[in-house]
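Hi U.,

Before I forget, here's the chain from the pilot set. I'm dumping it here mostly so it's searchable later in email.
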Amino acid sequence: MSTDTETETDKEASAIEQTLLMTSDDEFVEEPPARRRTAARTPGERIRLVLAHICIYLAALIFVAPLVYAFFSALKPNEEMFSMPPTLVGSQIKWGNFAEVFAYGPFLTYIGNSLFVAVAGTLVVLIVSTTAGYAFGRLRWKGRDAVFVLFLATLMVPAEVLVIPMFQVMQWFGWVNTYQALIFPFAFTAFGTFLMRQFFRGIPFELEEAARVDGSGPVRTFLQIILPLSKSAVAVLAVFTFLSFWNSYLWPLIVTVDYATLGTLPVGLASFSGLTGTRWDLQMAAAIISMIPTTILVIVLQKHLVKGIAMAGLGGR
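Structure:
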C-alpha cells in the first residue's frame, strides 16, 4: 500500500513540474497585494474629524463671502449699492459694468503699468535676494553675521517712514514720474534675503563641497547646484513680491505725477471716486478684474508655495 501511495505521489509531483515547465511566464498573474485594513475610528475620533471639517468649511466661507458679495455688487446698478435692506442681487444684472470700466478711464494702461512694474520688480528682487541670501547663508566672510543682523533691522522700520527720504533720493536721481522710481526703491528688501538665506542653509553642504572638489567656483555652484534646488523658495518669494508690487498704493501715488500714463492699478481704482461722486459699481467691477492675475499666479504656483513655505521655515515650525 505504501509503495502504491508513494508512486501516485511521485506521479503527481512530476505532473506538476511538467505543467510549470510548459507554462510560460506570461501566464503567471501576480496576485494583487492585500489592502491594508485601517483600524475603525473611535466615536471620539469621528467627532473630532467632523468638527475639523466644520471649522475648515466655516473658515472658507468667511474668506469667500466678501468676494461673492463684491462680485454680485459689481453687477448692481450704482444707485442700489447701499440700498436698505441690503440685498445680494440687485434689481438688474448689469454685465455691462465690466465693459464700462475700460471706457471710464485708461484702465488698460493701469493694468499694463502694474504688470510691467510687478514683473520687473519681481525679477530684480529675485536676483538681489538670491545672491544676497547665498552670500549670507553659504559663504564665509568676516563680519557676515553682524551685517546680516543690521540688514534684518531694516524690517523694523515702517515703509511710511521711508517715503520722504526715498522721494528725495528719486529727485536727486531725476527719477520722479518714471518706472525706475516705481521699481527700484523696494527691490532691496531684507525679507527676500532672509527667506532665501534660511532655505539655502537647509541644503546639505556636502553638495557644495563635492562641486568644489570638481573644480566649481562659488558662482557656478550657486547657478548650477544651489539655485536649481531652491525652486520652491524662489516661487514663494516671487509670489509675495509680485503681490506686494501689484497692491502697492501709497508709493505710486506719491512718486507718480502723470497718472494717465504711469498710474498703476491701485491708483486707477481710486480714480473711480471723484468730486462728482463715486461709481461704486464700476469700482467693484474693476476690483474683481484686478484680482484675476494674482489669483491665476497663486493657483499655478500653489504646489511650490506649500512646499516652499514648509521647507523655508515659515510653516509654523
